[in-house]
Automatic annotation (TrEMBL):
Taxonomy of the source species: Bacteria, Bacillati, Cyanobacteriota, Cyanophyceae, Oculatellales
Protein name: FAD-binding domain-containing protein
Protein's organism: Drouetiella hepatica Uher 2000/2452
Protein origin, superkingdom: Bacteria
InterPro entries recorded: FAD/NAD-bd_sf
Length: 173
């Protein structure tokens, strides 16, 4: 396998984590998203569920902390709250409140944009990563050794991406 250049479509939570993992193995990683990516914890169109309250459960926090040391220290002063899931939650379901108890399990509650922008800051700091915003991929065309990302809007590109025609990103893989 040629581990020269990885392209990740979508710079939301899955894309950010995928890009972080691939950056350990590929010489270059390019991350694309059709949105403009805010620099602060702002809502964006590409993540319509972003206005709902989100919780980062224990395993997710553990994994994120391994990839992004210090993330929790950044999230708490920025507005995240740590809850004890058994005793801090008042859970109403099927017509009644659940019994509260000490579970020993905690989770970080925060807005979806806060989590995403915090992770994004770490990912964008990766030396071998380039992020292209406002790049809406419309399709993929592949042959034996090349993949074309068909994109209507295209703003900037690193040198290793060539632009053979309007709206077409050609990526040598
Ligand atoms: C009401 C609600 C509550 C939730 N609560 C929780 C919770 O508490 N905890 C939790 O862990 N999860 C929660 N989730 C789930 C969580 O929000 C999603 O699992 C998560 O956002 C999925 O991330 P993703 O990166 O896979 O996809 P998305 O967040 O959907 O991101 C897709 C990305 O791809 C980009 N994109 C799409 N098409 C293109 C294209 N053609 N070209 C370029 N870019 C493109 C978009 O702009 C976007 O950035 C909740 C979901 C909902 C609906």
């Amino acid at each position: 396998m040629n581990l020269d250049h990885a392209v990740v479509i979508g710079a939301s939570m899955s894309g950010l984590l995928t890009a972080r993992v691939l950056s350990d193995y590929f010489r270059q990683v390019t991350l694309l998203d059709r949105d403009s990516l805010p620099t602060d914890a702002a809502h964006r169109q590409g993540v319509p569920q972003g206005r709902h309250l989100h919780v980062l459960q224990a395993k997710g926090e553990q994994i994120l902390s391994q990839f992004f040391p210090g993330l929790e220290i950044e999230l708490l002063p920025a507005g995240a709250t740590r809850l004890e899931l058994g005793s801090d939650l008042l859970w109403y379901q099927y017509g009644g409140y659940k019994v509260r108890y000490h579970s020993g399990i905690t989770a970080l509650c925060m807005s979806r944009p806060l989590l995403e922008v915090s992770v994004r800051h770490h990912v964008l700091a990766l030396q071998n990563l380039t992020c292209l915003e406002r790049c809406a991929v419309q399709g993929l065309v592949a042959n034996e050794d090349q993949v074309w990302l068909n994109s209507a809007e295209w703003v900037t590109a690193p040198l290793s991406l060539t632009r053979p025609a309007v709206g077409l990103l050609k990526v040598k893989v």
